[in-house]
Specification:
Shape: extended
Distance between the termini: 36 Å
Number of helices: 6
Strand content: 5-15%
Strand order of the largest sheet: 1-2-3-4-5
Order of helices and strands: HHEEEEEHHHH
C-alpha cells in the first residue's frame, strides 16, 4: 500500500516537472538545443565531406520531414539528395534522386546496386557509421558514379537494381531472423 502510494506520488511529481519544463523552458530551449546540434552536424559535414561542396556543388537545404531520430540535415548535389542523420554517436546516410518523388534508400544499398550484378556477392557492408570521416572514406571514391547512376537517363536502371538489392536484403534478414528464432527455441528447450 505504501509502495503504491509512493509510486503514485512520484508519477504525479514527474508529470508536474515535465509540464513545468514544457511551459517555461521547452518552447524556446528545445529548438535552441536542436539548432546547435544541427549546426554542429553541418560543420562536420562541410569539413569531412568537403569534396561534395567543391566538386559536386552540394548545398544544404531545409529538411523535408521532421525526424524523430536524432538530428538530420539534408543536402543536394547535381543529381542527388543526401540525408545525414546523427543520434547517440552513430551516423546514417540515405540518398534519393534529386528529381521526382523522394525514394530514400541507405547509401550502402545504392553502392551495391551500382557496382554488382548479384547483391549476394557484395563486399559493401550495411552499417551505421561511427563518424562522418568514415562516410567520406566510402563516398569520396564512388560519388561520381552515384551521381551518374542517379542521373535522369540512368536512374530507371538504377531503380531496378535497387529493388533487387532491397529484395535480397529483405530475404537475407528474414532467413537470419528465422535462424535466430530457431536458436532461441533450441536454447529454451535445453534450459527446460
Amino acid at each position: 500500500m505504501l509502495k503504491s502510494l509512493c509510486l503514485s506520488i512520484l508519477f504525479v511529481l514527474g508529470y508536474i516537472i515535465k509540464l513545468f519544463y514544457q511551459i517555461l523552458l521547452g518552447w524556446w530551449l528545445s529548438p535552441l538545443i536542436a539548432s546547435r546540434t544541427e549546426s554542429k552536424l553541418k560543420t562536420e559535414i562541410r569539413n569531412d565531406l568537403s569534396f561534395l561542396f567543391e566538386d559536386f556543388e552540394a548545398q544544404f537545404v531545409p529538411n523535408e520531414t521532421k525526424s524523430t531520430w536524432g538530428k538530420v540535415v539534408t543536402l543536394v548535389s547535381q543529381n542527388l539528395r543526401l540525408e545525414f542523420a546523427w543520434d547517440r554517436g552513430e551516423y546514417s546516410v540515405r540518398i534519393s534522386p534529386l528529381r521526382g518523388i523522394a525514394e530514400w534508400v541507405p547509401v550502402e544499398y545504392a553502392l551495391i546496386a551500382i557496382h554488382f550484378e548479384d547483391p549476394a556477392i557484395s563486399p559493401i557492408p550495411q552499417e551505421v557509421f561511427s563518424s562522418i570521416s568514415r562516410i567520406s572514406e566510402i563516398l569520396k571514391p564512388q560519388y561520381s558514379q552515384l551521381e551518374e547512376a542517379y542521373g535522369e537517363d540512368r536512374f530507371p536502371t538504377t531503380k531496378r537494381a535497387l529493388e533487387k538489392v532491397q529484395s535480397h536484403i529483405s530475404a537475407e534478414t528474414t532467413s537470419r531472423l528465422e535462424a535466430l528464432k530457431g536458436s532461441v527455441i533450441e536454447a529454451q528447450y535445453i534450459w527446460l
